[in-house]
Amino acid sequence: MEQPEQNVVTQTEPQTELPRAAALQDTRPSDVPDSPGASVFDAKNVSCYYGSFRAVTDVSLTIYQNEITAFIGPSGCGKTTVLRTLNRMNDLIPGAHVEGDVHYRGESLYAKDVSPIAVRRRIGMVFQKPNPFPKSIYDNVAYGPRINGQRNKGELDEIVEKSLRGAALWDEVKDRLKNSGLSLSGGQAQRLCIARTLAVEPDVVLMDEPCSALDPIATGAIEDLMREIKQRYTIVIVTHNMQQATRVSDRTAFYSVLRNEESDTRTGVLVEYGRTQQIFGDPQDTRTQAYVTGRMG
Amino acid sequence: MTATAVSGQAPDLREPKGWRSTKNRIMTVLMVTSFVLVIIPLGFVLFTVIAKGASIISWQFLTGSPIPPNVLPAGIGGMWPAILGTIEITALATVMAVPLGILGAIYLNEYGGKGWLAALIGFMSDVMTGVPSIVMGLFIFSIWVLHFGYSGLAGAFALGCLMLPVVIRSSYEMLRLVPDSLREGAYALGATKARVTVTVVLPAAIGGIVSGSLLAVARAAGETAPLLFTILTVTEANTNVFSGANTSLPSQIFSNASQPYTGAQDRGWGAALTLIVICFVLMIVARFVTARFTRYSR
Amino acid sequence: MSTAVKADPAVPAGSASPLSTRRPLGDRGFQILALASGLLVLVILVLIAVSTSQQASSWFSAEGLKIFTNNWDPATNQFGALAFIYGTAITAVIAIIMAVPVSVGIALLLNEVVPYRWSRPIVYVVDLLAVVPSVVWGLWGILVFAPWIQHIYASIASGVKGVPVLDALFGSPTSGASFFTAGIILAFMITPIVTSLSREVIATVPQIDREGAYALGATRWEMITGAVWPHSQGGVVGAVLLGLGRAMGETIAAALVIGASPVITSHLFAPGYNMPAVIANQFGEASGEFRAALMGLGVLLFVFTIIINVLARGVVERSARRKRGA
Question: Where does B92-293 sit in CATH, by number?
């Protein structure tokens, strides 16, 4: 990987001691296995284009099973773009295409005969702004199983309850499942969207800044949820909140922006990737260091 | 049917088999079919009109006068009275409806604000676009023709009533798109509201307003029903649009369509082609104006 | 039509009302002129109602409720109009049944399937459909389409002879100029307006809802039924109502191809009549109570279409407001 000529980071004089992010106290080292589990995603030299504009360049990393991996970095660094390549959501944008390869459990995601529908069934996504359908709470959660052929009312009831419990929403809505999904508060609606995603029993859950539209209490509830469900799922979360990354994630990938002077464009690049404790406590790259200590971003 | 992979087993990422993808494909085909179902009759009509009408069209046809009796074959006489009638009646209707429509839209957007009256007028204007054209004809018959007789003017009133709500609606949409910053700049220079509206807002929206009005004119030119009881179809050209019965292309087509004589039917096709060309030209000019002269669009 | 909220910078601060005499005369005159033009809409609508009802009053008083009987015979001064009301309803319903799936299909095609670059030509074609004048549809309808479809009607009729429900609907008598033909031609004519309104409604569905459905592994059709349709069903209903109103009032094409036969029959391929058609065809020679009767049909038509249009606009407004509020 070539050294970038110029990036958006401004170097200041180094301090004698890195200020310790207070949130680091929240990570419990014992939670992170020293040797990672199976590899779920294997990205090699992935570059993402919108038309001829290169949004992200040359990303290579591996996401491990049953871990929470966080993508952090300043705005415009492509972390959401990379996230969306993992479940082929960028296909929905005309002119978007991907170079390099992403393997999901050994299978290439972008091979010719791969169906994006099958991909998204296994790799679900929760969005920044909660987007419940204008249907009842029950129908929101049942939507996924229904389109996969589940018609039996009894089984649907079970799936709905299980998913709502899994999203820590069941107790709050069990008496009003017929109410519209639009009637829920922000935090509840986001948990509904999570329940909806869990209902199709995916392998991976991708989250694109899921708490940025929520208040701190709702945020805390979602973070608790993430820690609970990571035993059964693999989670990748994009967040601009560093404290959140230190609170929930096992591994962190830090992205930054490369500025191309001639064409005045910005391209995202993966700077550093490792265990969260190491990224925040002992960052190897100066850009990472500057970001996590709050000097930029 | 869990998706979590058992270790060692590669996931199947191929197309979901069976009903789901088939249904998706069927629906896409149906959607395309619905478009095809629209092209077919359109193509058919245009093709027939052009094929049958082109052989009738000639300088004689377009400028000859009077319109011959139905038994006579094409080639004798011509459609000039109808063409003249269409032009003068539609022009008169336009001159009445467009300025009033623009003023109405100005009221709604610039003066009406959130008041109940503006909301009512806006709502009823939209409702008025749905009033059948024949009702407009009956209305003008009751209120004008019974007292003053048939004339091109009566027909123009009826067409004008049809055009008015359409012009109001399209002009209103165009005025809405003009940004407030333009108005405020003019007010800051001490201009009155009327002056601002006429000299700043209207010119900014004029492209869209003109094209919307042209489409209203195209619709009016093709209308028959309002003219049935107001102009009384005749066969001689009438240059005085304000008095005396008149005729128009749609009126002639209507009366010729139910005739058994081939001469009359031929003339009907020729008139239809002429009419379609007129409407078509108006539509193309409207699009051109939209493309070149509209500064603010959605 | 929503109206804009803005403080009016033209009103001098402290003036008692927008028409305070502090403003120059020309400015006030212009405002009055604009207001008068707006009021013209209301005035015209009221005048329509009043003048036509007045002309039709002799019919209403002579027949009373008998106008709703199927007893139309000008020679003997009988003017029960049920056949025409029936014809108007039937042809409009046929037109809607055919036009709505096609129009919604095209609207979905434009919004969900076709890449933006190809949508312009498709829209042009649909607009072309709207430019063809009603009388040209009628001319083509009676001289070309009716003779052709007559054969198809005849074969269908012989095919369903004896079959209980189908024979009642599609059996003989058949004629090129008939209820069904009028319905087809009307369907062609209302497609552009239903399509364009449905398109507008479907385009307001937020993209994020579509993404939510896709993210669950939905196919495009499943996304449409799950995320797009719940948002747009209100607006589409409004569009359908507007199409219905337009179909009911469309005169000339119907007058030429409906067959001019005032009967009430379930046979859709038989000649029939409807309100605008009989007015168009017979008003010229009518007089006295006959003329009043035709005028009265015009009044009924006016009332029906006003009601449908008010309903339609109301439905569209309400679904738009709900979306904004939700």
Answer: 1.10.3720.10
